[in-house]
Every structure is written in C-alpha cells, then in structure tokens.
C-alpha cells in the first residue's frame, strides 16, 4: 500500500490494535499517532524494534513507564562493539547496543519518524571549511593571545590593524573530524589549511575591532573636552557686532506680565493684542465661540495666550506665553507668566529674560488682600520679590478690574498705599514705579486714554501702552563674549531637528558661526536665526531669538544650558557660594536643608552645606561667623552643593547668570547672587 504524505515510515501494520496509553499523562491516543496529543511525548519505540536481549516482562514495563526515555537514551548512549544492526524502513541502518537501546544518526531518525510532509533534507556538514563553532573557538583563542602578547611577538601588518602571525596561533585538532575531510577546494584555489589561515586572519581583525567598541553612553560626570579658555579680559568684539548700534532698527523690550492668580493677566494680554491688531477677527471669533460652548465666555481674550487644552480646561496659565507687538520705540516681547503658586518655577524660567515688568493687581474687594497674603502666602508679594531679584528696576503696576469697584479713586489709592510700602521694601525706587488703573475686559485705559468719565474724571496719567513705550531703554552689552541661556529646546520644519530659543544676554551671534554648547562641551553650527518668525543674519545682546543648530546630537542640548563663544566657555559649577536674603519664612533654615536652586533657566536639586556668616544688611559686612540657623529677613553667605552641574557666572562678572533663587516645599525661601563658583575639572584639548 503506498504511503501518504501524512504517514511516517513506521506507520503500517501495527502489532497492537486500538489506542495506546501515554506513559506520562495517561492519555489514550489513536494508533496512528506517533506522539501524545496532550503532552507530545513520543510513543514507545519497542513496539517497532524487537529487542531479543530483553525479557518480555521488561519490554512491558518499559512500555508502561518509560516511553520517552527510550529515544533519549538511544540518541546519547555511546556506540558499543556489541551493537547489532537494525534496518529501517527506507534502507537506513541503525545500531542496537548491548543494553537494547536503538542508536542511529539524526538524519536517519528524522526521515524514519517524521511524516513525508514534515521532512527536511538534512545534509551532513563536510568539515572542509571551518564550522561556525570553529570560528568562535579561533576568535576566543586569538583574543587571549592578543591580550597576553608582548612586543616581541611577530605581527602581521594590516592597514589600520595589528594582528598576530599565523605561526603564533596553535589550533587544537578536532579528533572527531575525519582526516579525509580535508580535501582540495577547487573553487578557492587552495586547501583547507589555507582557508583556515585566512579565516583566522579575518577573525583576528574582527576581534581587534570588537575590543574597541562600546555600547555604553557617555557617563554624566565625564569630563567635557573643550579648548583651553582664554581670559575674558582679552576678548574684543568683532566689527560686525557693533554695526547694529548705528543702524536704525527697533530695539527689543522683554516685558514680563506677572501677578496673583486670577488677577486678569492673560485677559489683559489678549485684549492688548486684539486692540493692536495682532489677533485676527477670525481667530477672535473662534475663541469666543469655543469659550461660550464650554461656559467660559469671559475667557475669550485669555485664550489668545492660553492655547493648550490643559490651560483652557483649568482656566489658569501654566506655561509662559510669548507674544509680540510694536510701539513707537520698541518691539515688545510680552511674556505672560503663570500666577498660580504651583507654577512659580515656570514663571521664574520665563521672567529671567525680562527687561521690564507689569505687575497686574486685582482691585476687587478681597482679591487684592488675597494677593497680598493677608490670609496666607500671596503671589503678588512673591512675584514682586522675584522680579526685583531678577534685576528688573522699572515696574508698571496695572490695577485691573477697576470696573468691579465702579472706578473708585479711594480703592485705587488704598491699593497704591498698601502695595507701595511693600515694593519700596523690596528695593524699588518710587520714581521707577508707574501706577495705571484700568479695566482689561472693558478696554479702559489700555491703548488709549480712559473714555469712561468715572475714571477720566480723577486719573490724568498715561495709559498702559504709553507707559510701556516710555520705559527706560535696557543696557545691551556686546563687549563681552556670547552668552545665550537656553530657555527651551524646540523642533520645527523651518529651524530643523535641533533648535533652541532664549535671550542673548551679552555678545552677539550670527549665521554659520560656531558656538559651544555647555555644559556638554559640544560644538555646533548656527544655521538659522529667527526673531518673531522673521529671519535674521545676526542677533545681539537683548534679542529674544530662536536658533537652528547643526552638527550636534540632541542629547547634548538641554534647557538650562548656555550657548557661548568657543574660546570663552561659561563656568560650570558643582558647588556655589551664595550671598542670600531670606524671605518671610516660618521655619528656620538649617544646614542640610534640601531645596531647589533656580539660576536663569536651570533648575537643580541642591543642599545647604554650611552657613559661612551672617551679613549686616546696612553695611554688608559679616556680623557673625558660622551661625546655627537662618531666620526671616536675614542676610548671609552660604555654601551649597548641587546635584548636577550648572552653568553660572559670578554676579560681578555677569549679572544675568549670577542670580539664584532657593525654593523649598512650594515657596521661595531665599534669593541671592553667586559670589564664588566652584568649577568642575575640565579636560582641555
């Protein structure tokens, strides 16, 4: 009877009719099954190969209890001179040893026990060339030789490589290989020994290459390879950096909008932009429609700045919004900062770029008192202290929501007197503070003078736009090397995969120039410079710009880093000495305190190592050595240790990179300046 494709060579007239019992799981299987349908154990082979050396009882016990072990033992039991020949169905021969176990080659067993459909042609390895195992073995031995070899060992000169000669390699002879397998290879034009020698050479080359490969990332504390820094005193600005000072071009004014939560900052910004034509009617109509659908009709103007879904859902500003508008004297970069206490770190990162600030105060009953912290910590006070610590000297106080108090002059004067006392205690001069009563929702006293007689009857000062335009021009220092703290890392189709934005605090930058990215110490090429979506060929100190970089991996660019001149790198600190002023705190500051240190756009965990001395606030001299703790309104010199390295400068060298803020448990506990930088060791090229 011809066999089908699903039949094995053993299938045919069976000695045992009916189902057979699996010795492992006791499953009854059909006679045609060669293995158990449940557990896959092979059927006992003694049914097909009669063992004359075993008694009948032994065969029965093996059939019942040891089904799988027969095949396993037959594969791994060494051959014996007493073995008997067994002829398989297709003419293949196997051996049966003295113990009665069947023994045959893997190809023979495969063809015998597998069905015709499942068979694969198994071609024996001829060993006329080195096998994969031989390649691995030779590689391991050559690796040991390379490590132990000294200069007296002869080498083969290969371009770019040094490998050992063939005479110094000893290969172990494989006794299991038939000597007759070493035959002449007509295709290669040589014998097996020459092939093996060439293979060994290739293996040595690969092994030597693998010794120098590493998949590990560069450790965080690895030293950056930068050029030896040149003293800053030797720096001289190039002629192109000074050309912009003589040209008539709009100067940039970075204006921070700060204040207590729900004081109307975003609404004021949106209303101002709409009045100046910076928001189209189509966009405004869309904002109004979406705000009404969500039951927040009064947020239509605020959504011009609060664009994210989270901000619109919660009704508060979470990130610093950026917008541009022009006045007679300036191109203003408006920085709408969050007022909620949970987002003060974001506010710090944005306001560090400010040249001037608008402090928005809610004039309605109860709201002003809440911002001043009558019943807790108010953000009006904290924001006032922070922007003064940033070096902002010109302050505009916008007393908003005057319509809610019927434009009362008494209420305005009360707010002015209460807040004025606190601002003067922060270091603001009376002449540098401008007070503007207004209503953002009603568009009163924003762009033009007040039209409502209830306000115009007693207030005869400037409107908000005029107050911004009359701000003192900030100082721009191009005489120092380039310093651009990275505010954010972005990616766009125009700027490229690696782009950063921030304010140039000193020096200048232009397209196709090289910059050093710190603290990574990597060089990059400036390809594109943009300001308010307009492309520039160069930018100078004070410009808030976006830059597209080339030739650098994105992992080396991070927020809080600094772009600087390749020959004049910024200082990188692991520890700092600070001169701080403790704010209104309830819990004293002790050595060992863990806190967050903010410096420009960098934020890092830090710890207070020791309190060096207390300072007399009038004279600035040390009044006590090594005090045990610091309390509210005290000034002191302290040492702090940073969890990771930060780019900073001493305050006397560069003020913008020399300010620091200490925050703990969600509030600012101290503000200060850097008096000494403990730099890391730099690996100089």
Automatic annotation (TrEMBL):
SUPFAM superfamilies: EF-Tu/eEF-1alpha/eIF2-gamma C-terminal domain (SSF50465), P-loop containing nucleoside triphosphate hydrolases (SSF52540), Translation proteins (SSF50447). Keywords: Cytoplasm, GTP-binding, Metal-binding, Nucleotide-binding, Zinc, Zinc-finger. Residues 250-475 form the Tr-type G domain. It is found in: Cytoplasm. CDD domains: EF1_alpha, HBS1_C_III. It comes from the Eukaryota. One of its GO terms (cellular component) is cytoplasm. GO terms for molecular function: GTP binding; GTPase activity; zinc ion binding. InterPro entries: GTP-eEF1A_C, P-loop_NTPase, T_Tr_GTP-bd_dom, TRAFAC_GTPase_members, Transl_B-barrel_sf, Transl_elong_EF1A/Init_IF2_C, Znf_RanBP2. Residues 16-45 form the RanBP2-type domain. Its main location: cytoplasm. Residues 171-194 are annotated as: Disordered. PANTHER family: TRANSLATION FACTOR (PTHR23115). This protein promotes the GTP-dependent binding of aminoacyl-tRNA to the A-site of ribosomes during protein biosynthesis. Belongs to the TRAFAC class translation factor GTPase superfamily. Classic translation factor GTPase family. EF-Tu/EF-1A subfamily. This is Tr-type G domain-containing protein.
């Amino acid at each position: 009877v011809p066999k089908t494709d699903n039949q094995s060579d053993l299938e045919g007239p069976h000695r045992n009719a009916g189902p057979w019992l699996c010795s492992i799981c006791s499953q009854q299987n059909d006679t045609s099954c060669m293995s158990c349908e449940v557990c896959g154990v092979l059927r006992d082979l003694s049914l097909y190969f009669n063992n004359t050396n075993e008694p009948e009882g032994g065969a029965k016990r093996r059939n019942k209890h040891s089904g799988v072990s027969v095949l396993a033992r037959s594969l791994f039991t060494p051959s014996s001179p007493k073995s008997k020949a067994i002829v398989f169905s297709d003419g293949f021969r196997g051996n049966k040893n003295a113990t009665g176990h069947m023994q045959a080659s893997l190809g023979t067993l495969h063809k015998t026990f597998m069905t015709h459909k499942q068979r694969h042609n198994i071609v024996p390895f001829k060993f006329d060339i080195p096998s994969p195992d031989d390649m691995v073995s030779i590689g391991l031995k050559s690796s040991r030789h390379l490590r132990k070899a000294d200069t007296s060992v002869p080498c083969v000169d290969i371009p770019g490589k040094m490998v050992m000669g063939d005479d110094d390699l000893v290969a172990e002879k494989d006794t299991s290989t038939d000597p007759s397998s070493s035959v002449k290879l007509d295709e290669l034009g040589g014998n097996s020994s020459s092939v093996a020698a060439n293979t060994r050479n290739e293996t040595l080359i690969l092994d030597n290459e693998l010794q120098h490969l590493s998949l590990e990332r560069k450790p965080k504390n690895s030293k950056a390879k930068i050029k030896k820094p040149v003293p800053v005193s030797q720096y001289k600005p190039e002629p192109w950096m000074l050309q912009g000072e003589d040209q008539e071009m709009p100067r940039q004014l970075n204006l921070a909008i700060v204040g207590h939560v729900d004081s109307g900052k975003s609404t004021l910004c949106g209303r101002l932009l709409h009045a100046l034509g910076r928001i189209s009617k189509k966009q405004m109509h869309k904002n109004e429609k979406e705000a009404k659908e969500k039951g927040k009709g009064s947020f239509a103007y605020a959504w011009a700045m609060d664009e994210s879904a989270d901000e619109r859902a919660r009704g508060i500003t979470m990130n610093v919004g950026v917008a541009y508008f022009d006045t007679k004297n300036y191109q203003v970069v408006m920085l709408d900062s969050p007022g909620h206490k949970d987002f003060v770190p974001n506010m710090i990162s944005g306001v560090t770029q400010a040249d001037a600030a608008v402090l928005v105060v809610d004039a309605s009953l109860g709201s002003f008192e809440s911002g001043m912290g009558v019943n807790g910590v108010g953000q009006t006070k904290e924001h006032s202290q922070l922007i003064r610590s940033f070096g902002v000297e010109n302050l505009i106080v916008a007393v908003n929501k005057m319509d809610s108090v019927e434009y009362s002059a008494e209420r305005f004067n009360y707010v002015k007197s209460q807040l004025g006392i606190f601002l003067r205690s922060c270091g603001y001069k009376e002449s540098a503070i401008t007070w503007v009563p207004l209503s953002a929702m009603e568009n009163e006293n924003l762009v033009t003078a007040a039209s409502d007689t209830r306000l115009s009857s007693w207030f005869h000062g400037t409107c908000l736009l005029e107050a911004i335009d009359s701000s003192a021009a900030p100082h721009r220092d191009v005489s120092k090397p380039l310093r651009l703290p990275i505010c954010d890392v972005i990616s766009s189709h125009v700027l490229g995969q690696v782009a950063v934005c921030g304010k140039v605090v000193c020096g200048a930058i232009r397209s196709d120039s090289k910059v050093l990215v710190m603290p990574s110490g990597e060089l990059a090429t400036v390809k594109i410079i943009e300001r308010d979506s307009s492309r520039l060929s160069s930018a100078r100190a004070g410009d808030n710009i976006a830059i597209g970089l080339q030739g650098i991996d994105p992992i080396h660019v991070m927020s809080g880093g600094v772009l600087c001149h390749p020959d004049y790198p910024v200082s990188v600190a692991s520890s700092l000495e600070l001169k701080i002023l403790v704010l209104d705190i309830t819990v004293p500051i002790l050595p060992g305190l863990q806190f967050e240190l903010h410096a420009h756009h960098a934020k890092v965990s830090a710890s207070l190592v020791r309190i060096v001395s207390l300072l007399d606030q009038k004279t600035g001299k040390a009044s006590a050595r090594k005090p045990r703790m610091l309390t509210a309104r005290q000034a002191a010199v302290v040492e702090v240790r940073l969890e990771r390295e930060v780019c900073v400068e001493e305050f006397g060298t560069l003020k913008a990179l020399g300010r620091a803020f200490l925050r703990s448990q969600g509030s600012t506990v101290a503000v200060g300046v850097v008096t000494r930088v403990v730099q890391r060791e730099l690996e100089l090229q």
